[in-house]
């Protein structure tokens, strides 16, 4: 199962601009010993998404189902990505999924964007 989870990138966001994002927990099939299946958190954010659910449906249908993985959205918000200034700001919430734990999203973004200033706030929509 860990091999399948490792095939899913931790972060996939647009290269610049402000856009909606969601925090998703990806997991495999239930285990037979009543333990929790292995899982990981991922961040996805795209300008093309009019709604947070658009991102979720795209990731679920196009990226995870083909690997036999399941997922659930743990909330959303927005990301302001300034490539020139090397800054990422995570903020706001999703009306449909609620507010993501922005600190968890920031932790993933920091690993994937070394040299960036990555911050978060609960302010804004």
Description:
The chain is of the alpha/beta class and 125 residues long. Helix content is 23%, strand content 35%. It is built from three helices and six strands, in the order αβββαββαβ. The protein has helices spanning 2-6, 52-64, 102-112; strands at 11-13, 17-27, 39-46, 70-82, 87-91, 117-120. The protein has a six-stranded mixed β-sheet, with helices on both faces. The protein is globular. The mean pLDDT is 92.
The number of helical runs is 3
Number of strands: 6
Helix content: 10-25%
What is the CA-CA span between the terminal residues? 36 Å
- For the residues shown, what is the average pLDDT? 92
Q: Order of strands side by side in the largest beta sheet?
A: 1-3-2-4-5-6
Spans of at least 5 consecutive residues whose pLDDT stays below 50 are none
Tell me about the largest β-sheet.
6 strands, mixed
Structural class of the secondary structure composition?
Answer: alpha/beta
Strand content: 35-45%
Give the radius of gyration.
14 Å
Q: Judging from the principal axes of the Cα atoms, what is the shape? A: globular
Order of helix and strand elements from N to C terminus: HEEEHEEHE
Topology record:
Layout: H1 2-6, E1 11-13, E2 17-27, E3 39-46, H2 52-64, E4 70-82, E5 87-91, H3 102-112, E6 117-120
Parallel strand pairs: 1-3, 5-6
Antiparallel strand pairs: 2-3, 2-4, 4-5
Task: Give a quick summary of the entry.
The protein has 125 residues and is of the alpha/beta class. Helices cover 23% and strands 35% of the residues. The mean pLDDT is 92.
Question: Which descriptors apply to this entry?
Answer:
alpha/beta; 23% helix; 125 residues; six-stranded mixed beta sheet; globular
């Amino acid at each position: 199962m860990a091999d399948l989870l490792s095939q899913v990138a931790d972060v996939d966001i647009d290269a610049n601009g402000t856009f909606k994002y969601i925090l998703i927990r990806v997991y495999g099939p239930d285990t037979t010993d009543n333990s929790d299946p292995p899982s990981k958190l991922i961040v996805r954010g795209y300008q093309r998404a009019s709604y947070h659910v658009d991102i979720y449906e795209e990731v679920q249908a196009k990226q995870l189902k083909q690997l036999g993985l399941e997922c659930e959205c743990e909330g959303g918000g927005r990301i302001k990505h300034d490539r020139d200034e090397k800054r990422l700001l995570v903020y706001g919430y999703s009306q449909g999924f609620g507010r993501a734990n922005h600190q968890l999203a920031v932790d993933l973004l920091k690993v994937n964007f070394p040299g960036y200033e990555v911050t978060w706030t609960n302010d804004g929509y």
